[in-house]
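Postdoc handover notes: sequence design on the structure in folder B. Input tokens:
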């Protein structure tokens, strides 16, 4: 059996990370949304991955590519464990419109949360861009975003 890629899908709130993961799962790919469940500890107000859980996840035997979604301050500690780090992006006006309209996540509805998103786009996204192996603009149709993620995983193994 050949080795299968682990791909980190990262980006700011509203770029379509969770939507892309749902699409990947619908196509039969293994996905983990680290915004869900016990993957996160909040330390001094900052969400951080529970490193032991992420370590165990990345050590598991895989029968196909694994797509992990998340954007946390300590994700850099695992970059060398991923075969690809994919930054999903969208123009700011698109991001703000998406978070206003989405129904699966309440974050981004308040003025303070929207200000946080704008600050993250200005301050955090450039850091993610420097560390990413790939970048995908999510204004393209969702099936094309999913296809691009699959292509990256297949090329990375």
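Designed sequence:
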């Amino acid at each position: 059996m050949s080795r299968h890629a682990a791909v980190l899908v990262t980006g700011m709130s509203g770029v379509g990370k969770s939507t892309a993961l749902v699409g990947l799962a619908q196509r039969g790919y293994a996905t983990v949304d680290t915004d869900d469940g016990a993957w996160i500890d909040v330390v001094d107000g900052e969400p951080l991955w529970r490193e032991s859980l992420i370590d165990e996840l990345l050590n598991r035997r895989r029968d196909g590519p694994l797509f992990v979604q998340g954007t946390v301050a300590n994700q850099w500690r695992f970059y060398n464990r991923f075969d690809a780090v994919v930054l999903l992006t969208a123009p700011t006006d698109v991001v703000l419109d998406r978070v206003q309209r989405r129904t699966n996540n309440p974050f981004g509805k308040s003025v303070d949360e929207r200000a946080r998103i704008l600050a993250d786009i200005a301050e955090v996204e450039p850091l993610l861009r420097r560390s990413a192996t790939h970048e995908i603009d999510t204004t393209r149709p969702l099936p094309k975003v999913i296809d691009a993620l699959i292509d990256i995983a297949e090329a990375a193994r």
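Context for whoever picks this up: The helical segments are 17-26, 51-59, 92-101, 111-123, 125-131, 142-156. Don't rerun without checking with the PI first.
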